[in-house]
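Worked problem 6 (solution included).
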Amino acid sequence: MTQVHEEVLAANAAYAKEFGDRKGLALSPARRFAILTCMDARLDPANYAGLSEGDAHVIRNAGGRASSDAIRSLVISYKLLGTREWFVVHHTDCGMQLFTDDILAGLLGKSLEIAIVNEDGWQDVGKGPGSSAGKFIKWLAFSDLEQSVVDDVTRIRAHPLVPETIPIYGYIYDVRSGRLLEVADATKVGRASGVEGYLQLDDG
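Solution. The predicted structure is:
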C-alpha cells in the first residue's frame, strides 16, 4: 500500500468509530437541493454552502460542467429523491481554462503519462505509446468563466427531462475569498416557471 492509501484507511477507521447517529440518515437529501460543481480540491461544498451530511446532493466533475452524466444525476436527484432547487457552481483559477480539447487530445496521443506545463505551454514528456481515443471525447474545456456558467445552466434548463418548476442558480466560487458570486445571466436563464401551481399540487 502507498502512504496515501494507508492514511485514507486509517482516517476511515477513525471516522467509523464516531459514526453514531449518521446511520439513520435518510436516502433523500434533507434540504432538497443539489449542487453541480468542480472536482477541484480547493472547493469544499460542505463548507462554502453550509452542508451537513444528509443535507444535499453534490455532483462533481472536471469544471462542474453540465455533461450528459451530470444531467443524468440531476434528473435522478429530483425524480427519485425529491430535490427542488439546483446550483451550478464554477470557480476562479479553474484548470479547465488552461487547455483546449485539442491540446488534451494531442497530449494523450503522445503518451498516457502525466504532462507538464511551462512557459511554452503543455508538454508531454512520457515515452508513449499514447492513444487517439482522446480525439473522440468532449473534454468541455472553456475560456470564458462566466459564459461557461451561463452555458451550463442553459443546457440544463433546456433539457427535456428537466421540469420548468426547478430553479437553477448560477454562481462562481472565488478561490481567493471563499465567496460565491452570482452570475446573474445564468440565474435569469435558470428561473423557474409555474412554481405556484407546482407547490399547490405538492402540498395537496
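Discussion: Strands lie at 33-38, 57-61, 85-91, 116-118, 121-123, 168-173, 180-182.
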